[in-house]
Amino acid sequence: MASFNQFKQFVSSHPETVPVPALFIGHGSPMNGIETNIFSRTWAEQAALIPLPAAVLVISAHWYTRGTLITAMDLPPTIHDFGGFPQALFDVQYPAPGSPALAAEAAAMVRKTEVLMDHDWGLDHGAWTVVRHMYPDANIPVLQMSIDYTKPPAWHYELAAEIRALRKRGVLILGSGNMVHNLRMLNWSMIHGGGYDWAIEANETFKQLIADGDHRALIHYEQLCHAVRLAVPTPEHYLPLLYILGLQTGSEPATIFNEQALGGSLTMTSVRLGLAD
């Protein structure tokens, strides 16, 4: 209840005419969750630019379900959904509260589908590895909404528009994935920097379309160039970007940050809606 009281206090003290910015974060390796590097520092810098939100709602590439669910527990567990990493990463706990009341409010906004209350998931590494750098005190409610793998890209973009009003209610909506994400073609000799020509081409294509506001082309990404089809061999890391673009209003600026290619076939390129530089 304390977490939802915080939500209500925010709403009462902030005008609804000013939406909280929204973020698409290229999250990359789970190790970014415990490392201080250019990516994690920039996540913290972005948080400092954004007015303190009442809650964070994450759409993560790593919660891919049949149907749409939203976490609705008071204390979401920290999920270590990976293997082969140092014990220090598995030892991390991010004890942010949840908000069942906010989960219910968000679900009620959606008309495209029934959003089910979930009490089993928690915060996967697409969420906590990023948010712990942004809000290290873990004192802001964090929820996750899943991605329905049975639905086409346009459906996800349209669903995002239905929850846009949450931004005026003090909620930071954060999509977590990677624009270019082809692990089958990862080159470990380039893991500290560098991208294949096709990865750079795809990244530039995405950036230009975002700058142009051409959401239709981004939704129908499979109809773009061969480089994009290599960049998005499966949709789960790309779809969180469409959720964030679906939140964009009017001429709201889209700012690119953390633009870097790694391992040949991965980019960390991220987007902020709102707060023009």
TrEMBL record:
Positions of the Extradiol ring-cleavage dioxygenase class III enzyme subunit B domain:
41-251
UniProt keywords, alphabetically: Dioxygenase, Metal-binding, Oxidoreductase, Zinc
Cofactor needs: Zn(2+)
Q: Does the keyword Endoplasmic reticulum apply?
A: no
A molecular function (GO) held by this record is: ferrous iron binding
Q: Which residues does UniProt call coiled coil?
A: none
| Record-linked CDD domains | 45_DOPA_Dioxygenase (cd07363)
Q: Which InterPro entries match?
A: Extradiol_dOase_DODA (IPR014436), Xdiol_dOase_suB (IPR004183)
Similarity comment: Belongs to the DODA-type extradiol aromatic ring-opening dioxygenase family.
The identity of this protein, by name, is: 4,5-DOPA dioxygenase extradiol
